[in-house]
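Handout, section 4.2: multi-component inputs.
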Amino acid sequence: AQSVAQPEDQVNVAEGNPLTVKCTYSVSGNPYLFWYVQYPNRGLQFLLKYITGDNLVKGSYGFEAEFNKSQTSFHLKKPSALVSDSALYFCAVRDINGNNRLAFGKGNQVVVIP
Amino acid sequence: DADVTQTPRNRITKTGKRIMLECSQTKGHDRMYWYRQDPGLGLRLIYYSFDVKDINKGEISDGYSVSRQAQAKFSLSLESAIPNQTALYFCATSETGTGYTDTQYFGPGTRLTVL
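Output:
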């Protein structure tokens, strides 16, 4: 079965500094990979996805993620963090050849310090 | 996402009570899902439905049941609520068809507390 690991519980970063949120995945076949963000008292919002093609995927709010097949990783990045980026971030994976279920990681709390 | 609505947004109930959480969507998607979110555990899938006649158990379906009344409506029931069902519940939808990727769109959530 597919699974996702988000190794850090919380990521603290100063405003203006680069932000990285780590994600590694496990699937039996080729993956579809997703990042979602959850702001306080809100549902999850789709940020970006990797399906195929270019390993660098650009998404909403200036975020991007890089698919690395050899390291089975899909880290989320933003060159310059904003205080408004403080939120809970979830990585998710789906095995395109398996069942249709998305497996979510436990989430990473990002705190951007002014 | 206003296209996916959940009612109620907050609910406090007592052990043993029957509770129904409702989800409606105007996105025209065939697929609907119910998840629960617990701190440190991420989202776990309770049930999912690929169309009105296709309902499937997720990873934590015990103690829950669902009803897909129409393409746009998917309800989650707790027949006899217990305290460890206290959680944040999310409904989500996704589309099918050629080239679909199962990008899911989430409702705002229902915070359920079972005393």
